[in-house]
Amino acid sequence: MKKISLFYLLSICLILISNLANSQIIFDTPLSNRVVEYNIDANLDVDKKLIVAKMKVSWINNSTDTISELQFHTYMNAFKNTASTFITESGGQLRSNSIDVNDEMAWGWIDIKKIILPNGKDITSSHKYIQPDDGNTADQTVISLRLPRRVAPGKKVTLDIYFNVKLPKVFARAGYSNNFFLVGQWFPKLGVFEKNEKGIYAWNCHQYHANSEFYADFGVYDVNITLPDSYVVGATGGLQSEKDNKDGTKTYKYRAEDVIDFAWTASEFFQVKEYDWKGVKVRILLQPEHFGLADRHTFALNAALDYFEKHIAKYPYKNLTVVDPPVGGMGAGGMEYPTFITAGTFKHIPKGVKMTEMVVIHEFGHQYFMGIIATNEFEEAWLDEGINSYMETRIMDETYGFNNSLIDFLGIRIGDGEIQRAGYVYGGASKIAETYHKSWEYTDGGYGVMSYNKPATFLMTLDNLIGRENMDKIMKKYYRDFSFKHPKTQDFIDIVNEVVKTELGDKFEDMNWFFDQVLYQTVTCDYEAKSISNHKLVGFTGAFDSGKNKNFKTADHSKNNYTSTVLLRRNGEMIMPVEILIEFDDGDKVIKEWDGKSRTHKLTFNGGRKVVSVVIDPYKKNLMDTNILNNSKVLDQEKIGILKYVFKFLFRLQNLLQTISFFA
């Protein structure tokens, strides 16, 4: 046996360590169950806007059932014709963009060419399009694949799939704009095989709807992307290698682990800013005219990374890419994919208008709720969009200032939290549907308000009721218990109840009463300070016994005695505990508590002073109250009359700004 030198052993060790550091692959401890594995080779024809691809996909049956069918999302077929469910529901318009039906290059699709088993058997003919949600036979965004051999529990099935993707002109999340490509939801992606509401294992594989986003299992992706060597590329996961093909093209190899999706982008014009955040390699891909805004992107992103680390958990991945779409591709802006987000900005956007920062922070937050906790965006959008909007509000308000975190320009100062509340108050959706609703079932509107603004508002209200420290305990436990696990609404409520009972058991037994109203009902909240009356006591003091007792006292006219009554009213159906601030004419103030249950509530005070004002919810804890203009009452109404008109104007302005600032 040859003697191995110490130098040789050290060299081998250094090579292994180097590979481990660069690849982020070897010996990693899995964060998820890694149900699926994708190996994809994709070649992009930038002129035809066409991807020619082949994919080896392996799926493990983690259920207790034996299955004979796989279901895949073929999302790109949403852009195939005017009769698809997506186009029908959206009317061909989404995110302030529309599809030009007369432009043949505007359409997109995915074409399954061949499906092969490991033994070489061709089972392409075994797939068919299905429409599990609406029965629209023109919709081709889900396929069912019958397998010749059943897959037992714990066993794996592997397929080779050959497919082509024609990218649409971007108007809704993915596609192309001239030489810019945002490639998302582009490959045949397996649905989730899980227990349904009846406790039966079934495929959760919904069609692509105008409102809904996505849901998938955790897995590992190895993706090779080949395209002209003049293009800058960014993608989910980490870049493993670049290969110059000596024909004017390059192949980029990416790997991503413990993620639910894979997206990528390419452009000839990207300018790149790279830096390290606590071991995370951050890449920001900016349009040349926006490179001067790189620091604003960086500051916002770092604020989000730091805030989530402090209040929930450290970002667990090693890579993060931020994409700035061109003006013509803004339909791809404001989107989230694992380790990969798209933002959006304008060249001359003032520093006092923090739309860029808001989008960066919001989309980063999705890394946790969409990507890591990975709730079902089809069926329970509020668990992602709503909780994320709540965290966005916290970060924006605490980073940039509570009263001016979104707008501080030309004398107008508006906070992000105010915009969320204004969207809820003026969005007009509270009576249309419940928040707990499948996304495509908002047939009469309201998806945005009920999935973003209202949940953000009721979670801030919950925060105010139980305290920020307890809210952080909830969010940390939610992440700790359900990261990489697909929790549902009841899982979140159970954690809220557990923390509240432990920390506030003397005040709240649970918060079911709260969620029953804000999630499962369409009730609205409105508490009103109806009136103040002060009656001066004149005449005798003490008892009067019709002359039998002559030892009574006459009134002391040198001292005033009053009976003061405050009348409060609950106009809405929602019941919330509220605090009442009472002010007297001597400047003294007292706080009273009301459980808010009765339709009317009277407070009575006797003594030598008058009540001059009353304010319901003086510390603005109950953000669900849709009309705060009637929360106060003072004896001299003229002093506050003009303020009511000012407040009304500001709320209408907030509503307008909320409308134009809507991002997914």
Structure description:
With 664 residues, this protein is α+β, with helices and mostly antiparallel strands. The protein is 26% helix and 30% strand. It is elongated.
Q: Quote the CATH topology of the domain at 32-229.
A: Immunoglobulin-like
**CATH architecture descriptor text of the domain at 32-229:** Sandwich
Uncertain segments of ≥5 residues (pLDDT<50)? 1-27, 543-555, 638-643, 654-664
- Alpha-carbon distance between the two ends: 64 Å
Brief rundown of the structure:
The chain is of the alpha+beta class and 664 residues long. The protein is built from eleven helices and 33 strands.
Task: Summarize the SSE layout with pairings.
Elements: H1 6-23, E1 36-45, E2 50-60, E3 67-73, H2 85-90, E4 93-94, E5 97-98, E6 109-116, E7 127-129, E8 142-151, E9 156-166, E10 175-177, E11 180-183, E12 189-190, E13 192-195, E14 201-204, E15 219-228, E16 232-235, E17 238-244, E18 249-259, E19 264-267, E20 271-277, E21 280-286, H3 294-311, E22 319-323, E23 335-337, E24 340-342, H4 355-372, H5 381-400, E25 407-409, E26 412-414, H6 416-426, H7 447-466, H8 468-482, H9 489-504, H10 512-518, E27 527-536, E28 562-570, E29 578-584, E30 589-594, E31 600-607, E32 611-616, E33 632-634, H11 638-660
Parallel strand pairs: 1-15, 21-22, 22-24
Antiparallel strand pairs: 1-2, 2-9, 3-8, 3-12, 4-5, 6-9, 7-8, 10-11, 11-19, 13-14, 15-18, 16-19, 17-18, 20-21, 23-24, 25-26, 27-28, 28-31, 29-30, 29-32, 32-33
Helix pairs in contact: 3-4, 4-5, 5-7, 6-7, 6-11, 7-8, 8-9
